[in-house]
Design a protein that fits this description.
This protein is α+β, with helices and mostly antiparallel strands. It is built from 30 helices and 14 strands.
């Protein structure tokens, strides 16, 4: 019954994920509404008559004039940088740049960030955004720029980090596009209307052609021979399309925006187009995830694109462009420098008559034209800076995860030594609460789950989730742990609030506080609460993110861990009630109320290993493990429910303890009797 219910919940969630989330802006829905006069005057700090001119070509935005003289350039972070927050929804900040390359105004127009919506006032957000006013974009010194930036708001590292990154990127793109400062290694701002012939004349695309006759000679001996002719066996074009003159003319503004919005700030977009009999893409990539026929070569470095770096384009918008059979855009990784020459290699193979293969390689050299080069390189991605700054914290969390992996893989040896198991268990829980929780704020939340779901639907970007290293490492390990061990790898070992509950309950037992045994029938019915809460929070988020976050306050994590009990008294009273109940019912909150645990239990159904052992006698001749399981995860016939198990290993200790397990006792007694003459 419970399993069927979980499957139904999973199907409902998949259905929800297939829908467009309420209020999520798509690329087609970008509305560049002109700001009103009051907003413009406040941003530029000027009074009197101002003229606002809209610019759509190249870098979109507005120019502000006073008495015929340019006094500022305006731009939207959503329209220019496609700034998508942690929630997967747009963050829109209107920026004003002066002709001398200074940020003279910044106003937050909209956001749906989970961490910003609750716990931090609008005044804090406004002050943070306005803290960018005065930034000198012409100063390329990293230290000077960092010193001029406002401090990231504590407890909102990810969201304010995204704000910081989008503001800096938009300000720089806008300043370069208006000629206020010079650009980077690749010109990503210049736009000039041209046609296919014009692009070829500029050197924007490299081209090569292999005829059917040439292919027939190179593939001599193939099982299926190539018929010689002057028709193209492979006609290949390639080029970096970051520059709007190339990308926007080839793909159109909308498709070009989509292609560039899907790559990282340090990546570049490479177009590979072809016509003729042979397909550079092939079909094997749909199974392997790698385009094995295509290799990008730069010096000693060879890179084969994968499915994650691929975007298919239906057709080019230029009227005089030749008919293409395949048009692909690949996101080049930072390891490939688009400003340096590259060679695109396409491997052609066919089976031979007597076995084996015959083939040849089509090599197409490409070099970025000087007209598309800019003076300076792009600034380092924000997440890279944060990972560098938080290296000690990431190393510490990494060590914790390694230790936990060793404990779980070595559970057989550990559970045969009860004192060692208990010491490791309580010690690790103590580290999880005091170091991971209170020290590093490493508490996962259902808020992050709904943010992830919305980001998948509204514009997923890895760099957004990489901004908080500790949370990223925990989620990565938890995701892998779901396949190996189930939800218990996080809930039972790494959750700081779960650790607090178990430690307090252990102390309560030591002081002789009597535990309440919840009847199994009631216990199983109470499970429905947390699954209902999880589905309700996720479903509500598609209607109103704010309301969903209000409901997510059922989690005590923010009060107890993130804010270290520094909140209003109603929140403190709620946490106190949960912890008080936990003195009598171990992990009371985890058992019945935790929506995060419910959310983790659903994908945990995909667990591919079964590390917890059972004997045929379990639940039939012996129910000791069932009575000792402190979270009620073992049913009356001895089965362990992976949706409720926190992987504490207590049942494995009992099974391996010859002084507790009745089966081992009986075996020992039988051996003694048989050995007695």
């Amino acid at each position: 019954m419970i399993t069927a219910g979980l499957r139904l919940i999973f199907i409902l969630l998949l259905g929800l994920m297939s829908l467009q989330p309420f209020g999520t802006a798509s690329a087609e829905g970008v509305a560049a509404e002109a700001p009103d006069r009051e907003t413009v005057a406040a941003l530029v700090g000027l009074s009197g008559p101002l003229t606002l001119q809209r610019i759509d070509e190249g870098i979109p935005g507005w120019t502000v004039l006073k008495d015929g003289r340019i006094v500022a350039h305006l731009g939207s972070t959503w329209e220019i940088a496609g700034s998508v927050g942690y929630s997967g929804r747009p963050i829109d900040v209107l920026l004003a740049i002066s002709p001398d390359a200074r940020v003279i105004g910044a106003r937050l127009l909209r956001h749906n960030e989970p961490v910003l919506t609750l716990g931090i006032s609008d005044a804090d957000i406004t002050a943070y955004v306005e803290g960018f006013v005065g930034l000198d974009l012409a100063n390329e010194t990293t230290g000077a720029i960092d010193a001029a930036l406002p401090d990231i708001i504590s407890r909102a590292t990810v969201s304010t980090g995204v704000l910081r990154d989008s503001i800096l990127r938009t300000a720089r793109i806008l300043a370069v596009g208006r000629g206020v400062i010079s650009g980077g290694a690749v010109d990503r701002t210049t736009f000039e209307v041209t046609d296919w012939a014009g692009l070829l004349a500029m050197g924007a695309l490299a081209e090569t052609r292999v005829t059917m006759t040439e292919a027939a000679e190179a593939l001599a001996g193939a099982k299926v021979a190539v018929t010689p002719s002057d028709q193209p066996f492979l006609h290949l074009w390639t080029g970096v399309i970051d520059t709007p003159t190339v990308g926007a003319n080839l793909l159109g503004n909308l498709e070009f925006g989509r292609a560039m919005g899907g790559i990282g700030p340090r990546d570049s977009a490479l177009l590979i187009a072809s016509s003729g009999l042979f397909s550079p893409r092939g079909t094997d990539w749909k199974k392997t995830g790698v385009f094995e026929r295509i290799t990008v070569v730069q010096g000693d470095r060879r890179w084969q694109p994968d499915a994650d770096a691929f975007r298919s384009i239906k057709k080019l918008v230029l009227a005089d462009a030749p008919e293409m059979k395949e048009i692909s855009v690949f996101a080049l990784p930072p390891a490939i420098d688009p400003a340096r020459p590259v060679t695109i290699e396409v491997q052609v193979t066919r089976p031979k008559d007597g076995g084996g293969e015959v083939g040849f390689t089509v090599a197409l050299p490409y070099a970025l034209p000087d007209a598309f080069r800019a003076a300076t390189a792009e600034p380092e991605a924000l997440w890279r800076q944060i990972w560098e700054d938080k290296r000690p914290q990431t190393v510490l969390v990494g060590l914790m995860l390694v230790v936990l992996a060793v404990i779980l893989f070595a559970q057989e040896a550990i559970t045969r030594r009860p004192r060692l198991w208990r010491g490791l268990r309580l010690g690790f829980l103590g580290v999880s609460f005091f170091v991971l929780g209170l020290g590093l704020n490493g508490q996962l939340s259902v808020v992050q789950v709904i943010a992830f779901l919305h980001s998948l639907l509204g514009g997923f970007r890895w760099e957004t989730f990489l901004i908080e290293p500790v949370i990223f490492l925990l989620w990565s390990f938890t995701a892998l742990g779901l396949l190996f061990w189930g939800r218990g790898v996080y809930c039972g070992w790494l959750c700081p609030f779960g650790a607090l509950q178990e430690l307090m309950n252990a102390a309560a037992r030591r002081f002789g506080i009597r535990q309440i045994a919840v009847p199994q029938s009631l216990h199983e019915r109470l499970w429905a609460i947390k699954y209902t809460l999880f589905v309700a929070i996720v479903a509500l988020s598609f209607y109103s993110m704010h309301d969903a976050l209000v409901m997510a306050e059922v989690e005590p994590f923010k009060t107890a861990i993130s804010m270290r009990f520094m909140r209003a008294w109603p929140f403190l009273l709620f946490v106190a009630a949960i912890l008080f109940m936990g003195l009598f019912i171990e992990r009371f909150y985890c058992r019945y109320l935790c929506p995060l645990g419910a959310g983790l239990a659903i994908p945990a159904k995909l667990k591919i290993f079964d590390w917890l052992h059972r004997r045929p006698q379990c639940g039939r001749e012996c129910r000791l493990c069932e009575t000792q399981c402190t979270v009620g995860a073992i049913d009356a016939i001895g089965r362990i429910n992976p949706n409720e198990c926190v992987l504490c290993l207590r049942c494995q200790v009992t099974m391996n303890d010859a002084t507790q397990c009745p089966v081992l006792k009986r075996r020992a007694r039988t051996q003694t009797e048989s050995a007695t003459p």
